[in-house]
């Protein structure tokens, strides 16, 4: 490790796979893209909810710079990502739901 070289900043793209808890992850843990997702119950954005809870971002949240959900994409292109984060779920319960 050379101290003169700056470490490359991680660029994590969150791959949102349906029915795996991705929305909960996006709204409660990952701050990126939060302002575009409205809270269905009280119409506050999750950005406002973060402020109400006085929630701060984790290192994971700060490194997440893109979201890919079906045909929609925000932020860092998948081809430029250093890492991809995706939730998984036990397949039988996913199928049944």
Q: Can you describe this structure?
A:
The chain is α/β, with parallel strands linked by helices and 97 residues long. Helices cover 26% and strands 19% of the residues. The chain has four helices and four strands; from the N terminus they run βαααβββα. The chain has helices spanning 22-28, 46-52, 59-63, 91-96, and strands at residues 12-16, 64-69, 72-75, 83-85. Strands 3-2-1-4 form a four-stranded mixed sheet. A hairpin with a 2-residue loop joins strand 2 (64-69) and strand 3. The longest helix has 7 residues, at 22-28. It is globular, with a radius of gyration of 15 Å. The termini are far apart. Mean pLDDT is 78; it is low at 1-6.
Helix-strand blueprint:
Elements: E1 12-16, H1 22-28, H2 46-52, H3 59-63, E2 64-69, E3 72-75, E4 83-85, H4 91-96
Parallel strand pairs: 1-2, 1-4
Antiparallel strand pairs: 2-3
Summary?
Helix content is 26%, strand content 19%. With 97 residues, the protein is an alpha/beta fold. It starts with 11 loop residues before the first strand and ends with a helix.
């Amino acid at each position: 490790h050379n101290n003169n070289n700056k470490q490359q900043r991680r660029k994590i793209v969150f791959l949102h796979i349906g029915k795996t808890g991705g929305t909960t992850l996006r709204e409660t843990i990952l701050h990126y893209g939060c302002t575009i997702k409205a809270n269905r119950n009280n119409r506050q954005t999750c950005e406002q909810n973060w402020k109400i809870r006085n929630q701060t971002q984790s290192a994971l949240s700060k490194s997440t710079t893109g979201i890919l959900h079906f045909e929609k994409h925000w932020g860092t292109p998948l081809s430029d990502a250093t890492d991809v984060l995706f939730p998984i779920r036990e397949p039988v319960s996913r199928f049944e739901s």
